[in-house]
Each structure stands twice: as structure tokens, then as C-alpha cells.
């Protein structure tokens, strides 16, 4: 009798369904969190353990391999410009859709899930005290090892790029260093494959706890907001990113099929970090140069949060509508500009989406307390926006590879077709 072998995507999907069933059956039962939360946390900790070594080693190898500071500078400039254009489109789309569909009209605040948001308020106040200059200075680490311990990705990226340029500048003497980090990179990708074996269990635990805690009922009172956010994210994914993909010579649906395992895992865990190593590996298999992939993807995790900023724009206008606050055109333009800045400056802060919203709401006169009404369904929306963030960063690496004349379209299509 032939043995049935389930792929990673199938295993994760089964874990997802079983987790939902457990959450529904044992709704509001504290035993679910007590038993499953440690399993979910263990999986996330395993992933976070891997991410920083992979980012450091891949960036150093990629930048040193480019061997030209001018080339890295040009690539960096183009990448940031591309990110800014795409995220601005996402914010404007969110504002337009919220104005057209008015998701905050008729919401019963008493039936909405209320959650304590004090931790986000405290974080937002700390961040708002920083000037723009301090935010940029924070990118340069005073102690690289401290940045590694704290998981400060911007500072890690900055140091790794400079170190890579230094290795390239010393020529032959830098080759042993380059070989060392290349070995580290390959070893860590092997570790990723080991960790992914427990991904279905991690997904089962995380989803089980989420559904058990908030329940399906929390969706009903804020259903219009959740539906609009999902519809907006799907529209952005297929239409906006689809158009960009077409320009780059990629079919967006073929790309989605190619990274389906990673999309399902990111959706289930609400974390792009869980799939960063595998996405980088798959992009290289497609023919994107290692130097571009290792540079663009980690930076994208900080600067290119398409799904998050689209959600933040809709959520801000949703709360304005709930409180009956009419926002002028000038106030809405202010919202767009503020989101463009705050979504970058706070990228490494825990609870980013809530913190960014808190920093934004005050500028257009919306009570920050309103966030307590949407906190209960934030995880459900976070799952979808994580997927869009992931696809946006994957596509960015392809776009930058093409812009540098180093994208092998024929090889990419062959690889995607073979994986279908």
C-alpha cells in the first residue's frame, strides 16, 4: 500500500483547521491558553532564533559579493523609492475605500470587543517623544551586539551593509571572512528546514489560543470593518501588486502558488519573520541574485509594510466614523502624510500597527481610546495584512532584480511552473 505524504502546506492547513475547532469547542476556557500558548511561543522563539543570523550572514555575503559601494548605494536608493511609492498607493487606497464604504457607520460600541490598550499607549508616548533626527540616529547602533540582543533590525541591517562593504574593500584578505559567513548562511538555511517540521504544531497552538480567547462572536459586531479590510487587501494584492508583477514579467497567481507554503504559515502565525529565510531561499532559486535578495527583503520588513499601512488608513477613518467625526480633505491628507512617516519610524516597535495608529489618531482629532473597540479583532485582520506584507516584499526583490538587469525571467517561470 502506497504511503500518503502530506506537504508542508497541507500539514499547516490541517493544523489551522484543528486549532480553530479546539478554539470553538473550548471557547473562553483558560486551559486552552495554558496548554497551547507555550507550544505556540516555542515555535515563534525557534523562528526568531534563526532570523538574525540569517539576515546578518546573507547581507554581508550579498553586499561583499556586489563588491562596489556605488552599486549598493544605487540599489538602496531605488529600493527605498520603490517602497515609498507602493506604501503611498496602499495608504491612499485605504483612505478612498473607507470613504466610499463607511465601515464605521452604525457600529454598536457596546457590543464591540473591548481590550486594554495601555501597553500600546505607553509605547506610543515613548516613540512620540523622539524627534525625526533621533529616529534616524537610532538606525546607527552604538553597540552592534546590543542591537542583536534587542532584535533591532534596522541597526543590524545598517551594520551588516557597512561590514559587507568593508570585507569587499580589502579584497583577497576578506575572502576567508566571506567564506565563513557564506557557510553560516547555508548552515542556517538547513536549520530552517529542521524548524519547519514543527510548524504545523505551532500553527495549531497559536490559532487555537486566538479563537478560544476572542471567539467567532467578536467578528459579528465589527464584521463590516473586517470584511472591508480583507476585501481591500485582496484588491491591493491582485490589482496593484498584480500590475507590478506583470511589469516585472511575473504572473501574480503563479507567484502566489510558488510561495503558498510560506503564505499559509505567515497567515496562521501573523508573523512575516517565520518565513523570511524560506522566502529568501525561494527567490534565489527563481534566479534573483543573492546580493539583491539579502539586501531588499530584510529592509522591506521594515520599510515596505503594504498590508499594515492599508489597514491603518481604513482603521483610522473607521474610528472617525464611529465617533461621528467628519474629516476634511486637509485632515485626510495629513493622515496620509503622517502614516507615511510613522509606519517607517516605528517598524521595530512591538505591536506596530496599534502603536502607529495611536501616533496617528491624535493628529486628526480622533480619541485614542477607540482602539479598544477593534483590539479584539485585530489578530484576525493581522493575519491577512501579514500575507500582503510578505507578497509585497517578495515582489520587491523581483522588481529590484529586474531593474538591475539581473533577473532571469525564463528561469523564474520554469521554477514556478515546476513547483505548481
From TrEMBL:
One of its GO terms (biological process) is dicarboxylic acid transport. It is found in: Cell membrane. Its main location: membrane. It is a multi-pass membrane protein. GO terms for molecular function: symporter activity. Signal peptide: none annotated. Gene3D superfamilies: Sodium:dicarboxylate symporter (1.10.3860.10). Pfam families: SDF (PF00375). The keyword Hydrolase does not apply. It comes from the Bacteria. The chain crosses the membrane at residues 7-27, 47-67, 79-101, 153-171, 183-207, 227-248, 287-303, 309-342, 354-377. The keyword Transport applies. Keywords: Cell membrane, Membrane, Symport, Transmembrane, Transmembrane helix, Transport. PANTHER family: PROTON/GLUTAMATE-ASPARTATE SYMPORTER, PROTON_GLUTAMATE-ASPARTATE SYMPORTER. InterPro entries: Na-dicarboxylate_symporter, Na-dicarboxylate_symporter_CS, Na:dicarbo_symporter_sf. This is Glutamate:protein symporter.
